């Protein structure tokens, strides 16, 4: 197995990562479940790092599960931009949730994870493309 094949994320792993990240996001909105994200915050050192991890993991997992890799570069970028918009909307919604609060720092952390996921996605995609074929129309 060569390195390019090792970088392929199995569908089941992406499904598990997506479920785990969504569970952490939902747990932040349900006071009875708040112990789970708080445990991970303590493990990682801060809420900021949890936002980076979820922003990264959820972005890559959803990209894999959606099958977006078969689409053009432009559609893939639009997909990732839509995810960033959803992260922003999620953070804005917290302004109206009683036990939550809006934070620009949290959005910046989620966006940092998103940027890392975007870079990883397009780097691996470019690396896996057959050599010698430049497709500008893709």
TrEMBL record:
Keyword Membrane: yes
TM stretches of this protein: 12-36, 48-65, 77-97, 103-124
UniProt KW Transmembrane keyword: yes
Keyword set, alphabetical order: Membrane, Transmembrane, Transmembrane helix
Protein's name according to its UniProt entry: VanZ-like domain-containing protein
